[in-house]
Amino acid sequence: MKQEATLHHARPTATPTVARPPLLILSVATGYGGAERNIETLLPLLLAERPVTVFACNPLHLQRLRLLAHPALEIHEVDASREDFADGAARLLVQRFLALRPSAILSNTMDSLRILARAAGWLPGLDAIACVGVHDFLWFDHAQLLPQVPRATLLVPDRAVLEKPDYLARHVWPHGPMRALVMPNPVDIPETPASMLAADAPFLHLATVNRFKGHALLVRAAALLGPRCPGLRIASVGHRPIPELYGELQAQMAAAGTASTLSLHDHVDDPSTLLRGARAVLVTSVSAHGGPETFGRSIIEAWAHGRPVIAFACGAPAQLIRHDVDGLLVDEGDVAGLAAAIERLHRDPALADRLGRAGRERTQREFATPRVLAQLTAVLDGAWCPRPQAPPAGAGLPGPGLLFDVSVSLEKGWHSPVGISRVEHHTGDLLAAQPVPVQLVRRGADDGGYRRLTGQELEFLANMPDGIGRLAAAELAATPLPPPRVPQSVGRSLRALGAFQRGKGRLRRLADSRLGRWLHGRASANVRIAPIGTGPFAPGAGDMLLSVSNPWDYVGTPVFQALRARGVRVVLAVHDLMVWETPQWTAGRDPRQYTGDMLAVIAEADQLVAVSRYTAGQVQRAMAEAGRAAPPLRVAAPAGLDTGPARPGAPPPGLDLDRPFVLYCSTLEIRKNHILLLHVWEQLRQRLPAGRLPMLVLAGRWGWGVDAARLAVERNWRLAPDVRVVESPRDEHLQWLYRHARFAVFPSFNEGFGLPVAESLAAGTPVLLSDHPAIVEASAGLMPALDPDDGPAWRREIERLCTDDAYLAQLRDRARAYRAPPADDLPRALLDATGLLPRRAAAPAEPARRPQEMGLQP
C-alpha cells in the first residue's frame, strides 16, 4: 500500500482556519462513480473547517483529490488489487486514528466498510464514531460486514435503498441496531443558470455503459424519434468499462439506423459545459442488472444548471422527480413513452425551461453542497441530523395543540406506507400545512399509555419527505434532547491498545493474545452510546389527541379517561369492527376481550370518523349491543395511493411484460381469501385454451393463517408459471400494476372499506369483488360483486373476463366513471372533528352512475 501525505498534522499553524477536530474518510473502490464524486464535492468546504485524511484507490479519484492541493488534506493511496489490502489499510487506519483523534470516520464504499470492520475488530469503539455510506444495491456481503459495526450510522442517498426487501432494513432501527439517515448527494450550483439555448440543443444522457443504465432502450427510442424529429439529437456520455457491451451497443445502433439521432461520447470529468447546452437530461436506468438508481446524481446536476430531467419511474427517481413539475416520468421500460416525452420537450422549449427552473429552485433548497454539508457535519460531530425542510405552518404558535399519534409510521419502519399508515401520512401532510401547533406522540409500550417521541424516533420520521417528516424535523430542532452519541474519544483503554500496535504485525498478534482480549473487553465496556431521552408528556385542557390507527390495540381505557379528566379531547378514526363482526377472521388476543376493550375506548372519544357508511353503522350497532352511547360520528373515505392514469410507474422486477395479468393487492392473510383464487386458477389452467389464462399477481406481504395458500403457491409446480407473489411492492410498482392489469380481483371476506378496490378503479381498471357491503361501497356500486364463499361463481366470472373482451370493455367504461375521493377528504374530516380548524364549505357530491346508465346489463 502506497502512502502520501500533503500535510503533517503536527503543524497546526498550517491550517489557521481549522476549528473542528479531524475527519477520516475511507473512499476505497476500484471503480469511480457518484460515491467518489460526493467526496470531491464536499471536500473544499470540509477542508475550510477541519483537517481531513482520505484513503482512496481509484486513479481518477486520486487525481481529482490531489488537484485540491490543500494543506489540511492528507491522502493515502490503497492498492485494492492486493488480496490483503483490507488488513494493511486497517492497520494504517488504526495508526492514523490514534495519532489524530478524529471526531468521526466516514466510510464511503463497500471496500471501505471491509477496512472499517477489520479495524473495529482490533480497536473497539471505532464503529461508534463511524458513518457508513451505502450508495447502491450492489453490496453483496453487507450481511456479514454490517453486524461487525453495529454502532455505526448508516447513510443512504434515498429511502429507496432501505425500502428494498431483504437488503439493509433488518440492520437498522427499528428492526436492527444501526441508526440510519437519508443523506442526499450534494451538488455545486452555478451562480446563474445557463442562458437561452439554441433550437437544436441536444438531449444529454450521462451514464456509464452498463446494462442497468438503459442504453439499449435509449437506442430504440432514438429509432422512433429519427423519422418524427429530424433535427433532434441525443448525446450519451460516459465510461466504457465493458468492451463487449460497448460493441453490442454500437451494433444495435447500426442496425437501428440511429447515427443521425444518437451519438456516443467518452466520459468527461466535468459535464458542466454539456449541461449548460442541453435541452434536458435523460435518466434511462432500469431495475434489472443491479439497478435501479438509488439517487441519480445526474438529476440534481441537471437541475443545478436549470435543466429538466426525463426518467423512468423506478427507484429513487420515481420519488425524487415531481412529474410535470421539475421533470417528466415515464413508465419503466416504455420506449414509446420515453420517445414521446423527449419529443414533447423538443417541441416545447418553454415547458423545458419551466421544468428546469423548478428543478433549480428545489436544488437550491435541498441539495446545494452547503446545505448537505450542514446535515453531514452535524452527524459527524455527534449531533442530531438537521433537515432543511420548510417548517410546518403551526410551528411556534401558542394555544391549544394537537397531539398526533404516529405509532403506525414508527412501527412500519422503512416499508412504504400502506393502508392505515398511508392514512396517517396523508393526515400529516394536511396537518403540516395548518396553523395549529402539533406534537407527535406514540403509544408507550412501557406504561400502556402515550408519550412524546425520543430524539431517535423524531430523527427517523424526519427522513420522510412529507408532512410527518416536516413535523418531526421541526420538533427535533425545537426540543432539548441528549445527543445520539457522546462526542468524545472511544475510551481510555484504547490508548493501552495503541501502545502495543506499533509494528506491522504487532496489532494482530496482540488481538489474539490473552492481554489483547482483556484490553479489548475493557475498551468495549468504555464505549457507550448516549441515552436517547424524550421530552415531558404534559397535555393540558383544550389539547386534542388525534389517532388514525387502532389505539385500543395497545392503549387501555384508563389512559383515555385520564386524558379527558385533564381536559384533553379525543378524535379517533375507525377503519373496521372486524373483531366484533367476524372474530374468526382475526388474529391476536381473545376476540371477546378485544371487543370489550375496543368499544370501551371508542366510548371515550369526543368524535369518531368512520371510513365508510358501513363501518359507521357497525359502530352504532356494536355500541347499542354493548349498552353504550356512540360518540358523534361522521364518515369520510380514505384516498389511498395516487393511481391516476397519468401517474407513471414501474413493473415489479422479473414480471413477464408480454403476458396479461390479473391483480390482487392485499396482505396475504386468511381473511383475504387468496385460497379461493388459487383454486380458481388451478381450474382455469386446465379449462382455458393456451394463451388465454392471465397470470395471477398477488401484491402484498405474507401475513397470518396462510399455510394453505402458501402451500398452493410453493408446492403446485404446475400452477407456478401462472402465479406471481410480489412481496412489499413499492409505490411505483403498485401504480404500474393497477394501470396495466387486465382486471383486478378482491374476494376478501370482510373489510372496513376496501382501499385497493378504490385504487384500482381510480386507475381505470375494473375489479371483480366480494359482495361484502363495505367493499361494494368502496366501488360505488359500479362493479360485479360475488359471494366470497361461492367458488363456482368466481370461476365463471373470471373465466368470462379472461375470454370476453367486449364484456371487459363494458366494465372498463364503468371504472372510468368512478370518482376517487380527494386525497385530503379523510384527513380534513379528522381535523374538522378536532374543532381546531374552521370548517370548509361542503362541495356538492357527484352521484355515481348506476350500472344501467353505463349500458351494461346486470
Automatic annotation (TrEMBL):
SUPFAM superfamilies: UDP-Glycosyltransferase/glycogen phosphorylase
Region listing for Disordered, in residue ranges: 837-858
PANTHER family membership: GLYCOSYLTRANSFERASE
An example Gene Ontology molecular-function term: glycosyltransferase activity
Protein name: Glycosyltransferase involved in cell wall biosynthesis
Compositionally biased spans, kind Low complexity: 837-846
Provenance organism: Pseudacidovorax intermedius
UniProt entry keywords in alphabetical sequence: Transferase
Residues in Glycosyl transferase family domain copies: 654-815
Domain of life: Bacteria
Record Gene3D superfamilies: Glycogen Phosphorylase B (3.40.50.2000)
Keyword check for Transferase: yes
Pfam family of the protein (one): Glyco_trans_1_4
